Amino acid sequence: xxxxxxxxxxxxxxxxxxxxxxxxxxxxxxxxxxxxxxxxxxxxxxxxxxxxxxxxxxxxxxxxxxxxxxxxxxxxxxxxxxxxxxxxxxxxxxxxxxxxxxxxxxxxxxxxxxxxxxxxxxxxxxxxxxxxxxxxxxxxxxxxxxxxxxxxxxxxxxxxxxxxxxxxxxxxxxxxxxxxxxxxxxxxxxxxxxxxxxxxxxxxxxxxxxxxxxxxxxxxxxxxxxxxxxxxxxxxxxxxxxxxxxxxxxxxxxxxxxxxxxxxxxxxxxxxxxxxxxxxxxxxxxxxxxxxxxxxxxxxxxxxxxxxxxxxxxxxxxxxxxxxxxxxxxxxxxxxxxxxxxxxxxxxxxxxxxxxxxxxxxxxxxxxxxxxxxxxxxxxxxxxxxxxxxxxxxxxxxxxxxxxxxxxxxxxxxxxxxxxxxxxxxxxxxxxxxxxxxxxxxxxxxxxxxxxxxxxxxxxxxxxxxxxxxxxxxxxxxxxxxxxxxxxxxxxxxxxxxxxxxxxxxxxxxxxxxxxxxxxxxxxxxxxxxxxxxxxxxxxxxxxxxxxxxxxxxxxxxxxxxxxxxxxxxxxxxxxxxxxxxxxxxxxxxxxxxxxxxxxxxxxxxxxxxxxxxxxxxxxxxxxxxxxxxxxxxxxxxxxxxxxxxxxxxxxxxxxxxxxxxxxxxxxxxxxxxxxxxxxxxxxxxxxxxxxxxxxxxxxxxxxxxxxxxxxxxxxxxxxxxxxxxxxxxxxxxxxxxxxxxxxxx
Length: 746
Description:
Number of strands: 32
Shape: globular
Number of helices: 23
Structural class: alpha/beta
Radius of gyration: 26 Å
Strand order of the largest sheet: 1-2-3-4-5-6-7-11
Largest sheet: 8 strands, parallel, barrel
Strand content: 15-25%
Distance between the termini: 62 Å
C-alpha cells in the first residue's frame, strides 16, 4: 500500500498527523527549508520527534529543499552531518549540492528529490535514481496518464501531491517573489505574488482581480487510480496550516486509502464529506482529468484560476479596524505558553476589532493573519474574546500586525480535536545540535586546453524566434542562443528558413519544463538537430542532461534553471559531463564570484540584460484573460504572454546591469548574455541596449534584481536600518509604469 505523508509545521500538527493515521510526516528545521515562515522545529524537538515517531513505527522526513549560496555551504555540511547522526528516514532536497555532499560524505543518507527540483519525466527520474536518489516528488503540473507513463519507465519511488495549495508557476521555476525584493521561492521565502490582487488593462478599461491565485488541489477521488498506477507516497501540502486542518485532511485520505478496495464509491463520498470542513480555497483536480498535454494546455487555466477568489486561505473574517492593549494576564499567559524561539513581536499580544466579515471568532477558533504588504502570515488560536459596551467585539492577535491586515478563519473550536502528544513535553534528554565540522575544500575542474572551443569569449544574445535571429545579428554576437519552442522546432525540423548564421554559431536552449510527451518528442528532435549539424545545447531540466548524454558531437551548457548557487552544485553538474554554465537570473555578483574562482570563470556566461520569466505557467490563460499588461497595488507593472508552449509573466521593465560590464571584465568574466527571450526584438530596442553596454550608461528605469544586494537577509536589513540605510534602493514602482500612466500616454 502507498504511504500517506502529512505535513508537520509544528508539534500540534505532528500530533494531528500521527493521530489521524499518517504513515509518515515531513517537517523543516530552522534553515534550508522551503517554509521558513512557519514555526518549524528546534533541535531538541526534532530529535525527540524522530525518536517518538520511530517508536510508533512511522517515518519522518526532513526538508532541506532550498538552494544554498556559496558562503552557506559549510553550514549546510554541518546540518547534513547532524542529520546523519539523528537518522531521520530521508531528506527532501532541491540543491544539487546536497546530492553531491551526500555522495561523498553521507552515503547512507536517503535522499528524496523535492518537487522544487522540477522533475516531470522518466528521463529525469532515472538520472536521479542512478545518482542515488531513492524517491522523486514529481512536479505538481502532471496528470494521471503522465504519472502512469513515468512509473512504467522507472523503478524509482514516485511521490505526488494530492491535497493543498498549488503554485501557479511550474514547480521550482518561480522568480516573482525574488524579483520583487530578493525573497526567493527557491530560498523558502516566497511572498506569494500569485495570491495578490492585480489591476489589468482590458479593452473596456481597468479590471481588477486575483488573476494568478490558483485553487487548492484535491485528489481524494483519484487516490484509487494513483495507487493502482504504483505511486509510492501521497503527499499533503500544509506546513503553514493549522493542526486542525492537518488532522481533517489526513483523516479523509486515510479513510479512502483504507476502504476504497471494498467500496470505492462509498469511500470517496465519505472522504469528501470529511473534507467539507477544510476551510481553504475552492478545490481543483488541476491536470488529472486531461488525457493529453494539448488538452491540458488549453483547459487547465479554467480548472485552477478564478480572479474573484481571494488569495487567502480560510473563511474571510475581515480586516483589523482597530487595535488596543491586551489585558496584562493575557500577555503573561502568552509568554508562558510560547515556544522558546517565538519571535518577540508575536509575544506582544494585542486586542483587535475586525470589520468586513460575517462571523465573530470565539476562543478556541483557529485564525490566520495576513499582513497587508504580504510580508508575513501567522496562524494562531484565539485565546480571548470580549464584547465592549458599545457592542463591538475584540479578539487577541499577535504583535506585529496593523490596522488593515486581513484575518481568516481556519477552523472553529467545535471542529477541533485533541490528539495524544507524540513527543514528550520534557525534551531535555535530546541535546544534539549541529557541530563545528569543517567542510573539505572543493576545487572545480580546471579548464582543459581546447575544452571550451564551443564556448568562446564575447557577447551572446538569446531570442525566442527565427525572425529575431535576423534582427540581433547586427550586434555581432559570437553566439546567438535560440529557444526551442513550438514555432522554432517546426522551422528547424522542416528546414523552413535559411539562417543568417552558421549552425555552430547558434546554440539551442531547451525549455525548463519537460513532461513525458515533450520528452518523447524532444528525443527525436534532438537527434534531428544534431544530424543537421547543430552542436551546442543549453539544458534547463535534469531530463535534458539524460537526453543529451552520450550524443556524439553534442556540447551541453547548464542553463540558468539548473541552479548553480554554489560550487558543490556546480561539481555535481561537472560529474554529468557539463563544463559550462549560465548564471541563474536571481544570483548576485558577490555569490557568483565566490562560487567560481578566477581560474574557472571562463566556464560561465552571465546574463546582464533580460526580461526574466517571473511565472512560467504550463497552460494557456483562459479566454477571459484578454489583457497583456497588469499592475500590483504598488504600481509595479508586468506583462503576460500566452502561447501554445504555456504562459509567461514578465516585468515590463528589464533587468539590466549592462552598464556594469567593466566590473565583470575586471573579475575575469568574458562571456556576457543579452537575453531577449519571450519578447519581439526591435532594432531601436537593440540599439538602446547596445548603447548602454558600449557607453556604460544605465538603461532608463532598469531593475537590478539581486545583482548588488543578493537574496533578502533579515539580519542585513536590521544592520542597514541601524546605519540608517535603505535595504533596496529600487522601489517596486521602479519596476514598471502604472497602467493608468500608460493609458494617459496613448
